[in-house]
Each structure stands twice: as structure tokens, then as C-alpha cells.
Automatic annotation (TrEMBL):
Pfam family, one: Urb2
Protein name: Urb2/Npa2 family-domain-containing protein
Domain Nucleolar 27S pre-rRNA processing Urb2/Npa2 C-terminal: 1071-1314
InterPro entries assigned to the protein according to its UniProt record, in alphabetical order: Ribosome_Biogenesis_Reg, Urb2/Npa2_C
Region: Disordered, residue numbers: 1206-1230
Species of provenance: Myxozyma melibiosi
């Protein structure tokens, strides 16, 4: 080891020797690093070294060049930097050239200065040193030091860093990128012309920028900043202007402006950019990257005078990379730019005419680029290729292009030619149904009746003309123009030409014939009069040659059915039999049929026929089919409905209101469904039991069909069923319910039972036989399902309600008593009692009381005792559903007994409260999805609340405990009701207020004081729910507690002013505002002048910079609008207190105004944070929305337009003379109104001055500014010349210009002028 590597023994004896040793100019820096580490770590405790940290940091900067490539040397930096105070390290930093060192080391790491030897060792050293170098940069950047240097050094640092991001993904983190680009920002501060910076980046630097831009994550900070660099430097306006002037100047011999870009050669204009891009491997194939770079240029030009260069830029990119046109052209399309047709055509040629989405984009952008090559494009590449969505879409857009140039006839000619070329190739795009319908739409929007008539030939029809003619006839039926007689005759003549033998086996001809007679009644009658419809019928029933093409059969049937609407055919019954044969379940396939494609085959013709029948021919079938044929049609429809392949016609049928007007068809379908429900047997019971027992097997059986039949009946309006069918269906449903164990089937069947029982005068076995009802209840107890329990309870309620209804008899009342007795015997038996039995006992008790009979109190009390004992069992033995049923039953029994005696709630019931509150509170806080279990817990708590609210103690202590328990439970329920619909917040609020109204003065005051203490001394949002409970108590009806509530409300307002910064929950803050709004609206008399002042002060403080900061999630707009709403309520309801307090209003308006501003970073830095007067809960980078601006304008209008209650402060009727007439009263009102406006007008100049200040240093979004104007105009309405002069004198030159423009707008748009 050399002597240089050893640390001298006397180096640590004194600070002087230590500093002299460290400053030793040696080539081996390792001993110095070791010694410096020892000084930092305290390895030399006897050494006194004053200001050691500052010296070592200074030493580090001095030796940075020597230790630049040493990992341990860089590891020293964070330690030294952190241990030195901020002021000292900033001073040391500015005395040295840290960025020069950073530039050198980053160049070395990135490989810009690779040594000639020891490459492997240096490679390892680079990997080790890279993270600590970047850590040092982060440390410096965190202190917000002004890191400014020369352009060359800054560019070198940025380029080296970008090269590192390509190799090491972690170096592209947002924190490191922000540190690097802070150097970039500081260096460019104040630079207006980016030309020098662009030159400094050089070709190599730009390549690094582009490559890093490609690899950066789209949501990262690095991607955003690189995009800004490309936009600002590559597309700098000065560079673009110079390039435009230079290129056009060479051609014209003089300078030209950016507006004369038509003479600019785009290839030469952006030559430098593309020279750089060529350095990136495979760049011409990277269309997505090129489109992003192009997008940056377009967004830059959009806001500059070089906007005319945008088309040239797009053309240059297309010439540079035609293969990327699919990415580049949509960019141009989004900017509505016009590029040369030659460039677009070349882009299409580069894709070998096969990129149909690109072709669609180009034809929309510039039809002239496509129309000249249409023949080559479609004939060679599209006509004989299988149809796809892209090719059909291109043809539709091509037709639209022909429509735009008013030459649709040329497209129709092209269509005929290509159809002739396609021949029998059915998959050609030209034969697509989607194309036909789209062209029909285009024709209907562009052609007149005369053009339609001209397009219909007067000669024999060729096969290739059929599809275009179909489109024309479809368009005729959609056109807004009325069809004249001449055109109707033209259609009838066309129909006659379609009768030729050459076309009789072409389904398109049959389809066209059907469309012609469907255009209107006149054409149909004319065709029928000139042809023999029976000949058509015979051609279908007994053709000379068997029809093999199912499409021909389908459209022949459509023709026959259409003609049958006008004329009764002799052999129509045979035609109906033929149709029903096609639909016969034994022969039909019922495969899926696409209505849009109109593709008909042997497999799906039956489905297609059912579709057309349901949508078009229901009325015809009802009137022309025989009863047997209607039954066969119903069987076909039901067979399709129970098919798993395609049940759409069945669903459409049930949704069609037209079905229920067809009596025969409706009844036939109902008979079929009932027959299916009863398994089609005469003995329903045995058949259903057998089917349900078979359902345990895996194969498809009759139980599945029962399920589908029930599902169909649920969609069916059962009130339209015949009474005999209703009774049979209900009996079948009860059998199904009894013998089925499938939960879904039971849910469906019981829902249907419930619907039947809801019908008037609907009788069933359930209303006479208690055993049937018990069977239903026992089944629901076995399955334990929330929905099934609810439906079962509804069924019991319907049965008991029928027994005590208007048609009740002694036997029905006796039925109720038998049910009650059966349930009571079960309770007394001492065995296990299910939840259904409990509900049956309580519900039957309630309905017996309704019938006028009375149940002995002993029976009810025994039920109460039994349920209380049941609830006292260990929690795990009682599931949620049983708890709910027991509590609902207990509540109903308590309600019955409360009319005759006072009852108390057992401790077992009260013990259930904490567990359910905990469950629901956790759900509320976590925001989890609401489940049936959560709804059950909510119902349990609401039931307990109802019982507790009816509980009365005789002793004072007992009443206080009851009130405390009720208040706690109400507070919890009120919070929980926000996340579950099972708790009716309005109902529990009403019950709570009714109960609180009956409290004694001592109890009321004790509860209120406890709530007030909790609400004002907690930061927990859950405890803050007490605010809502306070709101309920403050609005209790009656005046018994008026003086107490007035004092406490004043105390609450004063406490909120003092402790407003302790509010950390936005929800609590909104609840406070809601409390005062509710009190103002319901109990205005509780607000004293002192409370008014404190409340307004609270609003001012919470809307200022010294206000609270919220830690929970909240909507900025919601908070802002609530503040405006509360302020408006104060102004409208408490206007009598405003005299002498207008300064408070103006201060609040000034604070709220800044919430509508958008911050400017430069303005905040220049003016200081104190001048940025936004509320603490408003994000710095976000402004409030236009809804907030509208709320602010409404607030201004309420202030500046005094209402009656505010303006007539001195209009006390007692102070008026009895002889005062109506005119004098009106004069007094207008006079006091004017006085109020004059008092306010003295203060509004301060508000307008504040607005001018905000508009000068900050900005308003356009929509916010527009919404704000309405309110500012009302302010100007109350300002006189004196106030306008004060405002004009209060603002600076910039503010005066804003004020002048605002006043001019007011005079033009806001001021009322007499005509």
C-alpha cells in the first residue's frame, strides 16, 4: 500500500490538520473519503471541529472533479447535505459549479465519454454510481435551489439523462424527472426565442428526446415534459416562420410570411425534423409514435400564427411515412384540415388499397383522393372478397361522398356494375344488407320523388338491378315527400315487370314485390287490381316446381299476407296451414336469425317467420286464422319460447301490447302456459309431483319447462286471464311450491302467487286452510333466503288482508283465529319455533284486531315473553333472518299492547344493538356493496328503534336513560341510512322528534347539552353525526324549550367560529351548514342578531385561507354550493339583521370569488401566497365548476335585490296609522327597499375592485366567466355614479381596463333599457 493511501496519524489531532489533510491535492481520493466518513460518523470523538458539516460540504464540491467517478464519494453527498443547515448549503452550492460536475458524470455514465480501456470495470462502476448521483440531484432539487446554467450544460445533462432512461426504467420516475427538468426550466427562464435552445440540442439530443418520448409511460411526468419540449422547440414559431420564409424566399426571391405557405415545399420545410427522425431505427414503421409527434405540432400551431402550416405538416409526415397513414390521417381529420388529394392517394396506395378503415377516413377527409381510383379500388380488391364490417362501412361512406358531390346516380351505376361482376358470389360486400339499408337512408335524405322516378327503369329488369331497386323502394317509404299518383303508377308498373318468368325464382324479386305493395295502400290496391292474388297463392301451395330456395318461400308468404290485408283469398286457409307447417315444432329448427342481415335458410326460416308474425301479422292472424290454426300458432310461439336456441320472438311477443288486444291468440297462449304448468295432464297433482321429483336428475325434464312457464306468466298481465284459468294456475303454483326444493323456482312461483292474490276477489285454498299457509312458511324456514322470506310475508299479509276486507265473513274471521290459535299452540309447545311462525302469530294478531275482534292480553304477553326469551339465547344460535322476524313480531305485539298498557323492551333486545351498529358502521366507512345481510341488520335496528321510541319509564332516571338510548340509536341509524335503503331516515326522524317533544325540560336539556358537547369537541366524523341529531332537536315543534335553544344555538355558533380549524371532515362541515339552514327555514325565531353575526363570521373564516382543511373525500363543488346556499338562506330569511353589517357580506363574497379563479404559478410566486385568497379546502390547481359560478350569481342577485322580509324592517303594523291606504304601503315598501339598496351600494365597489384584481393576476374559465356575469350585472344595477367613480379610482391601469370592459358589457347586455 502506498503512503498516499494511509491516513496520517496526526490528521485527527486538530481541526487545522484535518482540514489541511483533506485539502491535500492527491490523485488517490479514497483515504480522504474514508477520513471524511470518519468525521461524519464521529469516529474521532476527541477532535473538535467547528462548523464541520459546512467545511466537509465545501470540500466535497472542491474535490468533485477528482471524485466524480467514485461511488463512495457520491455516497458522502446526501449525508453532508442533510447535516448542513439549509442556508449554509444553499450558499455553498452557489459558490461552486455543481451542474458542471453533474454534466460530466452523467456523460460518463451514459457512455458519451467512454474510456478506451477497462470497459468492463467502468461498466460495473457506472451501474453502482448511477443511483447515488441521481439521489444527490434529488436532494438539491428538494431545496428549490435556483439551478440555472448555460444552454450547453443544460442540454448535456438532459440528453445524458434521457439516454439513461432508455436503459434503466427506474430512472424515469417522476421524482427524478422533475429534478432534471427543474434545471431545464431554470435555464430557460425568461427565454422568449427558443431558436438557440433548439440549436443547442443538436441532432443527437433530439434523437434522445424522441426515443425517450416513445418509451416513456403515457401517464408519467417525463412523457408530459418531453411532449412540451417537442412542442416548444421542434415546432417553435420562430423556427417555423424562418423555415417558411427561407424556403418560399428561395423560390420567390423575397421574404414571405407564414400566411403564404401555399408556395412552401413541405418536404423541405420540415427537412431538419425528418433528418433527425431518420436516426431512430424503424421510425417510418412506428405510426403511433409519429402520430403523437404530429399531434404535438398540430396542437402548437392551433394557437399560433403558423396555423396555416398545419396541412403542410400533415403532408410532410405522410410523405415521410406513408405506411403510418392509418395513424396520421385521423390526426388531420380531427383538426378539419384539407390536404392535397395526391398525398392522400399515395397514402392509400402505400397500403396496397387494402386498408379499409384508412380508406374510409380518407374518403371522409377528401373524396377527390378516392373517387378517381374508385374502379381500381373496389373492383380489384373488394367486389370478389368476402364481406367484412370494414368493407361495408367503406362503401357506405363512399356513397355519402357521392351524395356530397350531388352524384348519387353515379354510385348507383357503379353498384349495378359491381353486382354484375360479382355474379353468384353471395358474400360480396356489395350484396350486404347493411349496405342496402344505409344507401336507402342516404337516398331518402338526398333524392326527390322525381329522381326516384327517373332511377326506376322502363324496360325489363336485370338481376343486378334488384338490390339497387330495393334500396330505392326502401328510401321511398322513408322520404318526407308525399308520393304522387304518377310515382305510384311507376311502382305498380315496376311490380308488373317483376312477374316475368326470368325473375320468379329470384328471392330479391319477391322481396322487391313485397316492398312495393308495402309502400302505401294506393300502390297495394293498384297491384291487387291488376294481378290475380290467387295465382300467387297457388304458386306457394302447389307449385309447378318444388321451391328449394327458402328465401323465395319467405318473401312469397310475406306477399300473400300483405295482400290478405286487402282481399280475402279463397284458399287462404291452405296458405295458413302451409305457414304453420313451417312453424311446426316437429319440423322447425328455430336456429338464430339475424334480422339485420336478412339471411334466411332451411334452419332459420321458422324463426324468421315468427319474427315477422310477432312484429307484423298478429292482427291478421287473429282475424283470418281459424281457432285451430291460432292454437297451432300459439304452440309454435311457445315452442320457440322454451327453446334454448332463440327465444327472442317469444320475448318480443310478451312485450308487445298488441298481443293482449288479440283475444283468441291471448287465450290460446294462456291455455298453453297453464297446460305446461300442469304438465298437460288432467290430474294436475300427480303430474306435477312426478315432474318435480324427476328434476333431481341432470337431464332436461319437465321441471325446467315449469320454470319457463312461470317465468312467462310473470311477464303476462294476469288480470287478463279468465277466472277459471286463474284458479287452476294458483292451485298448480301451490303444488309446485309444496313439492319443489329449488330456490329459484320457489322465488318465481311465490312471486306469481303474490301477484294472483293481489287481484280483486281472488280466492284460493290459502284463504281457507291454515295448513296450506303453514306449508308455505315451513318451506321458507328451511331455505333461509332473504327474498323468499319477504315474499312469504307479503303472501301472508295478502291472505290476512283478504280475510278482513270488504267481503269478509264470519268464516274468514274464524280462519284468522284458527291461524292465530295454531301459531299460539306452537309457541306454547315449548319446542323449536321457526321465524315464519312468529310472523304468522304477530300478523294474525294484528288483523284479528282490525276485524273488530279482541285477543286476550295474556296471549299477547306470552308471545312477547317467548320472543324475549328467544332473543336471550346465545347469538350464534339465532341467525339474522330469525332475529329480524322475532323483532318484527315483537314490535307488532308491542304496538298492539301499547294501546292498553305501558311496556318496556327486554334487555335481550337492547343487547342486539351494538353488534348490528358495528356491522353497518363498518360498511358505511369502507363503502362496501350492500348485501341482503346488511339490509337485514338495518331492518332489525329500525324495528328496535320503533320499540324503544314507544317505551315509557315512570322514574326520572329511567326516562333519561330511555332518552339517551333513543338518541344514541337515532344518531347511529341516521349515519347508517346513507349507505343502505333498508332504513327509512324520514320515518325514524319523525318518530324521534315526536318522542323528543314529550320529554321533560330536564331530560331535553340534558340530552341537548350532551350532543352539543360531543359535536363541538370531536374530530371524529362518526361522532360528528351528532350534528344531525342536534338539527332534529332544534326543530322539534312547540315553544317549551325556546329560550334554552336560543341560548344554545348562539353558543354553538360562537364555538364554531373559535374552533373552525378543528373541523377536518367535509361531511361534518356540510352537516353544520345543513343544521343552520334547517333552523332558519323551520325555526327562524331561534336566530338572534348575535347568532347571525357569528354564523356569517363562520362562513367567512371557513371560506378563507385560514379555514379548515378536510381529510376525507369530498366534492369541491358540493362544499362551495352549500356555502352559497346557506348564505342565500341567511339573506332571504334573516334580512332584518343586515343593517350595519354589509361589510360581512362583501368579505364573504370576496372569499368565494377566488374559488372560481384558476391559479397562475407565476402570479402566486410574484404576489406571494398571502395574496392567493382561496379557501384551504380548495385545491390550488383546480377551480370550481360553472355550477358554482351560477350559485355565486344567485347569491349576488339575492343580496342586491332585497326581498320583502328584508326591506320592510320598519313596517311594523302597530306603528302604522289605521288610515294608511294601500298606495302608502306600497310607497313605504319601495322606499325601504331603496334604502337597503343604497346602504349596500356603499360597499359593492370593494367587491368589483376585488374582481378586477382577481381577473388581473389570475384567470377565469370561459364558461365560469359567462355564468359569473349575470351576478355582476345585478351589482352594477345598484351602483350610482359615485360608486362607479370610487371603483375606477381604486384599481390600477390593468384593473381599470378590465373594469371598463365589464361596465361596457353591462350597458350592452345587462342593463335594462326602455324601448
Amino acid at each position: 500500500m502506498s503512503k498516499e493511501t494511509l491516513i496520517p496519524e496526526d490528521a485527527a489531532t486538530s481541526s487545522e490538520k484535518a482540514s489541511r489533510y483533506l485539502r491535500k491535492k492527491t490523485t488517490d481520493i479514497e483515504p480522504l473519503i474514508k477520513f471524511a466518513n470518519g468525521l461524519i460518523d464521529g469516529s474521532y470523538p476527541s477532535l473538535f471541529f467547528p462548523r464541520k458539516e459546512e467545511f466537509l460540504l465545501e470540500w466535497w464540491f472542491d474535490r468533485a472533479e477528482a471524485g466524480m467517478k467514485n461511488e463512495r464519494f457520491w455516497q458522502l453527498f446526501p449525508k453532508l447535505w442533510d447535516q448542513t443547515d439549509k442556508d449554509s448549503r444553499i450558499q455553498i452550492y452557489h459558490r461552486h459549479k455543481y451542474l458542471d460536475t453533474l454534466k460530466s458524470v452523467l456523460q460518463w455514465i451514459s457512455g458519451s465519454e467512454e474510456p478506451e480501456k477497462d470497459k468492463l470495470d467502468y461498466s460495473h462502476a457506472k451501474l453502482a454510481i448511477r443511483p447515488v448521483v441521481l439521489v444527490s440531484l434529488e436532494r438539491v432539487s428538494k431545496d428549490q435551489i435556483y439551478m440555472r446554467t448555460t444552454n450547453q450544460i443544460m442540454v448535456s445533462i438532459v440528453v445524458s439523462y434521457l439516454k439513461l432512461t432508455q436503459a434503466f426504467e427506474e430512472t424515469a420516475s417522476d421524482a427524478i424527472a422533475r429534478s432534471v427538468f427543474s434545471i431545464y426550466d431554470n435555464t430557460l427562464y425568461g427565454v422568449l426565442n427558443y431558436k438557440k435552445v433548439s440549436q443547442a440540442l443538436s441532432s443527437d439530443g433530439l434523437v434522445a428526446v424522441f426515443i425517450a418520448f416513445e418509451k416513456a409511460r403515457r401517464e408519467s411526468y417525463l412523457y408530459t415534459r418531453l411532449g412540451d419540449i417537442i412542442r416548444d422547440l421542434v415546432y417553435s414559431p420562430s423556427i417555423m416562420k424562418q423555415a417558411a420564409e427561407g424556403v418560399s424566399g428561395k423560390k420567390e426571391g423575397k421574404k414571405s410570411t407564414a400566411n403564404s405557405v401555399d408556395t412552401v415545399d413541405s418536404e423541405n420545410l420540415f427537412k431538419n425534423l425528418f433528418d433527425v427522425l431518420k436516426s431512430i431505427p424503424d421510425i417510418q414503421q412506428k405510426g403511433e409514435l409519429l402520430s403523437e409527434i404530429l399531434g404535438l405540432g398540430l396542437s402548437k400551431f392551433e394557437k399560433t400564427k403558423q396555423k396555416a402550416l398545419m396541412p403542410k405538416l400533415c403532408e410532410a409526415f405522410l410523405q415521410f411515412s406513408p405506411a403510418s397513414a392509418v395513424y396520421l390521417i385521423p390526426q388531420a381529420q380531427s383538426q378539419d384540415m384539407i390536404m392535397s388529394s395526391e398525398v392522400l392517394t399515395k397514402a392509400l396506395e402505400a397500403q396496397a388499397y387494402k386498408d379499409w378503415p384508412l380508406a374510409t377516413t380518407i374518403v371522409d377527409l377528401d373524396a377527390d383522393a378516392v373517387l378517381p381510383i374508385t374502379d381500381k379500388l373496389v373492383h380489384d380488391n373488394l367486389t370478389h372478397a368476402p364481406s367484412t364490417t370494414e368493407t361495408v362501412e367503406f362503401l357506405c361512406h363512399l356513397a355519402s361522398a357521392y351524395a356530397r358531390i350531388r352524384d348519387l346516380q353515379a354510385f348507383m351505376t357503379l353498384w349495378k356494375e359491381e353486382l354484375a361482376s360479382a355474379g353468384d358470389f353471395e358474400e360480396s360486400s356489395w350484396k350486404s344488407e347493411s349496405l342496402v339499408r344505409n344507401i336507402a337512408r342516404i337516398l331518402s335524405e338526398n333524392w326527390t320523388i322525381h329522381q326516384f322516378s327517373s332511377a326506376i327503369p322502363n324496360r325489363e329488369i336485370e338481376h343486378e338491378e334488384l338490390l339497387p331497386l330495393i334500396a330505392i323502394v326502401l328510401a321511398c317509404s322513408r322520404t318526407a315527400d308525399s308520393l304522387n299518383d304518377a310515382f305510384n303508377k311507376k311502382l305498380a308498373a315496376l311490380h308488373e315487370k317483376l312477374l316475368s318468368d326470368d325473375l320468379k325464382e329470384n328471392y330479391l324479386a319477391w322481396r322487391l314485390r313485397y316492398l312495393i305493395i308495402s309502400v302505401n295502400r294506393e300502390v297495394a290496391k293498384s297491384v291487387i287490381a291488376s294481378t290475380d292474388p290467387n295465382h300467387l297463392l297457388n304458386a306457394l301451395i302447389s307449385p309447378e316446381k318444388k321451391l328449394k330456395d327458402r328465401r323465395v318461400i319467405y318473401f312469397m308468404i310475406q306477399n300473400i299476407l300483405r295482400i290478405s290485408e286487402f282481399q280475402l283469398l279463397e284458399n287462404f286457409s291452405q296458405a295458413a296451414d302451409y305457414i304453420l307447417t313451417l312453424l311446426s315444432p316437429s319440423k322447425a329448427k328455430y336456429e338464430s336469425w339475424d334480422k339485420e342481415s336478412q339471411s334466411i335458410s332451411k334452419q332459420n326460416i321458422s324463426t324468421a317467420m315468427l319474427h315477422s308474425t310477432v312484429e307484423r301479422w298478429l292482427v291478421l292472424a287473429e282475424n283470418r286464422f281459424t281457432p285451430d290454426q291460432i292454437l297451432l300458432l300459439a304452440e309454435a310461439l311457445w315452442h320457440c319460447g322454451k327453446s334454448d336456441k332463440n327465444s327472442e320472438p317469444w320475448s318480443r311477443l310478451l312485450d308487445s301490447p298488441l298481443l293482449y288486444e288479440q283475444v283468441q291468440l291471448k287465450n290460446s297462449l294462456a291455455d298453453l302456459l297453464v297446460s305446461q304448468l300442469a304438465i298437460g295432464k288432467s290430474e294436475d297433482r300427480d303430474a306435477i309431483i312426478k315432474a318435480l321429483r324427476k328434476s333431481k336428475s341432470k337431464s332436461l325434464d319437465e321441471a325446467d319447462l315449469i320454470f319457463k312457464a312461470i317465468d312467462a306468466l310473470l311477464q303476462y298481465p294476469i288480470e287478463s286471464l279468465r277466472r277459471s284459468i286463474r284458479a287452476r294456475v294458483l292451485d298448480c303454483l301451490l303444488l309446485i311450491d309444496k313439492y319443489s326444493s329449488d330456490l329459484q323456482l320457489l322465488l318465481k312461483s311465490r312471486t306469481l302467487i303474490q301477484k294472483f292474490l293481489a287481484l280483486p276477489n281472488m280466492k284460493s285454498i290459502l284463504q281457507t286452510n291454515p295448513a296450506g299457509l303453514s306449508s308455505l312458511i315451513s318451506k321458507s324456514e328451511e331455505l333461509s333466503d332473504f327474498d323468499l322470506d319477504n315474499i312469504t310475508t307479503d303472501i301472508m299479509t295478502a291472505v290476512f288482508g283478504y280475510a278482513v276486507g270488504g267481503d269478509s265473513t264470519d268464516s274468514s274471521v274464524q280462519f284468522l283465529k284458527d291461524v292465530h290459535a295454531s301459531a299460539f299452540d306452537t309457541l306454547q309447545s315449548g319446542g323449536s319455533v321457526g321465524r315464519g311462525t312468529l310472523r304468522m302469530f304477530s300478523l294474525s294478531s294484528r288483523y284479528i284486531e282490525k276485524s273488530g275482534s279482541t285477543i286476550p292480553d295474556e296471549n299477547l304477553l306470552k308471545g312477547v315473553d317467548f320472543i324475549s326469551d328467544m332473543l336471550s339465547q346465545p347469538k350464534q344460535k339465532l341467525d339474522l333472518l330469525t332475529q329480524r322476524s322475532a323483532l318484527l313480531a315483537l314490535g307488532e305485539l308491542n304496538e298492539l299492547l301499547s294501546f292498553r298498557r305501558d311496556l318496556s323492551v327486554s334487555g335481550a333486545v337492547l343487547n342486539l344493538i351494538p353488534g348490528h351498529v358495528k356491522i353497518l358502521s363498518s360498511i358505511t366507512e369502507s363503502g362496501a356493496n350492500v348485501t341482503p345481510e346488511i339490509n337485514i341488520s338495518g331492518q332489525i335496528l329500525q324495528t328496535i328503534f320503533g320499540m324503544v321510541s314507544s317505551w315509557n319509564h315512570d322514574s326520572v332516571d329511567g326516562k333519561l336513560r330511555d332518552a339517551q338510548r333513543l338518541t344514541t340509536l337515532y344518531t347511529s341509524l341516521n349515519q347508517i341510512s346513507r349507505s343502505t335503503s333498508s332504513i327509512d331516515s324520514s320515518l325514524i326522524r319523525q318518530k324521534f322528534k315526536e318522542k323528543a317533544k314529550g320529554w321533560s325540560k330536564e331530560t331535553f336539556e340534558a340530552i341537548f347539552n350532551q350532543l352539543l358537547q360531543i359535536s363541538t369537541h370531536t374530530e371524529n366524523s362518526a361522532d360528528a353525526e351528532s350534528i344531525n341529531t342536534l338539527t332534529a332537536l332544534l326543530t322539534v315543534e312547540g315553544s317549551d324549550h325556546y329560550a334554552f335553544l336560543t341560548r344554545r344555538l348562539s353558543l354553538l355558533a360562537c364555538t364554531l367560529v373559535l374552533d373552525q380549524q378543528k373541523i377536518t371532515s367535509a361531511r361534518s362541515y356540510l352537516d353544520i351548514l345543513k343544521l343552520f339552514e334547517t333552523v332558519m327555514k323551520e325555526k327562524t325565531s331561534l336566530i338572534t342578531p348575535f347568532t347571525f353575526t357569528q354564523l356569517f363570521t363562520f362562513l367567512i373564516l371557513t371560506s378563507s385561507q385560514s379555514g379548515p382543511k378536510f381529510s376525507d373525500l369530498y366534492s369541491v363543488d358540493e362544499v362551495y354550493i352549500h356555502i352559497c346556499s346557506t348564505a342565500s338562506s341567511i339573506i332571504l330569511l334573516l334580512g332584518r339583521y343586515f343593517r350595519g353589517r354589509h361589510n360581512l357580506v362583501i368579505r364573504l363574497l370576496e372569499n368565494l370569488l377566488y374559488g372560481l379563479c384558476r391559479s397562475r404559478k407565476v402570479a402566486i410566486q410574484k404576489l406571494g401566497a398571502m395574496n392567493w385568497k382561496r379557501a384551504s379546502w380548495l385545491p390550488v390547481s383546480q377551480s370550481c365548476s360553472v355550477d358554482c359560478a351560477l350559485a355565486y350569481s344567485r347569491l349576488l342577485a339575492n343580496i342586491c335585490d332585497p326581498n320583502l322580509s328584508r326591506s320592510k324592517a320598519s313596517s311594523n303594523p302597530k306603528k302604522r296609522s289605521r288610515g294608511e291606504n294601500q298606495a302608502e304601503s306600497d310607497f313605504a315598501l319601495s322606499s325601504s327597499s331603496g334604502t337597503s339598496r343604497r346602504a349596500l351600494s356603499k360597499h359593492v365597489p370593494f367587491l368589483i375592485t376585488e374582481y378586477c384584481y382577481a381577473a388581473t393576476h389570475f384567470s377565469f374559465d370561459a364558461d365560469v366567466q359567462q355564468a359569473l356575469m349575470t351576478g355582476l350585472y345585478t351589482v352594477f344595477d345598484i351602483m350610482g355614479e359615485h360608486e362607479l367613480a370610487i371603483t375606477n379610482a381604486s384599481v390600477d391601469a390593468t384593473g381599470r381596463a378590465i373594469f371598463k370592459r365589464l361596465y361596457e358589457d353591462y350597458n350592452k347586455f345587462g342593463k335594462w333599457h326602455e324601448i
